[in-house]
Amino acid sequence: MDSLELHFCEACRPLFEEIKRIHKEQYEKLETRIIELEKKNKELEKKLLAYENAHTPPSKQIFPVREKSSSGKRGRPKGCPGSTRKFRKPDRTIKLTAKKCPYCHEKLGKPDRIESKIIEDLPRPKQTIITEFLQGFYTCPHCGKRVETKHDDLPDSGSFGNNTLTQVSLMKFQDRLPYRKIQEALERQYGLKIAPASILDFTKRVSDKLEKTYNQIIFKVRVSKYAYVDETGLKVDGKKYWVWIFVTAAETLALIRKSRGGDVLEKVLGMDYGGIIICDGWRVYPKFTNNLQRCWAHLLRESDFIGRREEEGRKLSDKLHRFYRNLNELLDSDPPGNERKAIKMNAEKNLKEILREKYKSERVVKFINKIKNGMNHWFTFVTNPMIEPTNNIGERGLREFVVQRKIIGTLRNEKGTQIYERLMTCIGTWKQQGLNTREELLSCLRS
């Protein structure tokens, strides 16, 4: 600047100094403004992560990424074989004949041809059946004990039968209907008028009858060889609770607790659980056990999220996808145990090679460290073919609760959480086992 000042005469120097002062003030203001904007930008990015991150479901994303299909057309892919609904055996046959022509009233004789049309239809709505039970009570003349007569269709309490309790419970917890809609459906279909408060009381009675079955499912989960575990938030009386889901080979256990910590795992699975837990990256799982399978779907989803924002992230994401695809192709042939051990060792080595490359992006480096921290838990599925490499089964188990959460918003009290736990667990387990939920529920009510 001094060399430039030599070109100015003394008369111009005051003007030059004034220009310097103005530019300096403007520069300082701009510099301060940039610092403020950078700080604000970091705060906004932090808030945005609550709504848009690698683990945000598409339904909650503000700007969801929609990938177009290769063909761009909806419907069945070209070349896919069609399917036709199979006709069921008719319960009745109605023969349609005509004796006279409706136009000239002459006799028609035998039909030229007969076509068979099988129609499936619902029965007409039936009115409620009201039954009077004349229940006998006796006193044994020998031992003096009181004897009470029972019937399968006579409930332990209340004036509504087991079929009604079953229907209401399934409409609420399997069909996802709010109490008001259940009330309307019962009146329309059966002419049965019930207040929403009574419907809640019905589900409480059913929940009480399911206590034994629910405890049996907890025991079976505790001794299982593996469990897909996941959790999601739920409001109870406006306060944050957590829905925990445990899915084994034959059971689906749901719990609603105040905690998202390892104490829930200890109470459900016990301190000496010997099975494998398939889970996401939540820190309580590795603190509880070292026998884990970390979810590859979460890992690849997060790599895609970073790859859409940074070039280095895109390259890393491509490598991870290719690596995971090649690994699964090796396992498609169901190799024997010794070969699986070799595949696992080689996979760990190749993944470390991918992560050893140098990256400048802070976000990518942080993601790589996250993968390294779970290195012992990415390949458990390779030597244990009974489990999957993702926690998709656990997430599917939670889906029913997520839909219910959208419908009800919040549970009102602890009593409601117990009803939800038991009914959702039993219905989910029966569906998983391919059982008829209505018959199973009726059986529990009659026991």
> What would the principal axes of the Cα set say about the shape?
extended
Residue fraction in strands: 5-15%
Unreliable stretches covering 5 or more consecutive residues: 1-6
Output mean pLDDT: 89
Give the biggest beta sheet: 6 strands, mixed
The helix-strand sequence is HHEEHHHHEEEHEHEHHHHHHEHH
Structural class: alpha/beta
Count of beta strands: 8
Radius of gyration from CA coordinates: 34 Å
The helical percent reads 40-55%
List the helices and strands and how they pair.
Elements: H1 2-5, H2 13-48, E1 137-139, E2 146-148, H3 162-173, H4 179-190, H5 196-209, H6 211-222, E3 226-236, E4 239-247, E5 252-257, H7 262-269, E6 276-279, H8 284-288, E7 292-294, H9 296-307, H10 311-331, H11 337-355, H12 362-373, H13 380-383, H14 392-408, E8 410-411, H15 414-432, H16 437-446
Parallel strand pairs: 3-6, 3-8, 6-7
Antiparallel strand pairs: 1-2, 3-4, 4-5
Task: Describe this entry's structure for a reader.
Strands 3, 4, 5, 6, 7 and 8 form a 6-stranded mixed β-sheet that branches. The chain has a two-stranded antiparallel sheet with strand order 1-2. The protein contains 16 helices and 8 strands. It has helices spanning 2-5, 13-48, 162-173, 179-190, 196-209, 211-222, 262-269, 284-288, 296-307, 311-331, 337-355, 362-373, 380-383, 392-408, 414-432, 437-446, and strands at 137-139, 146-148, 226-236, 239-247, 252-257, 276-279, 292-294, 410-411. Among the domains are: 137-211 and 437-446, no CATH class; 223-432, no CATH class. It has 447 residues and is of the alpha/beta class. Helix 9 (296-307) packs antiparallel against helix 12 (362-373).
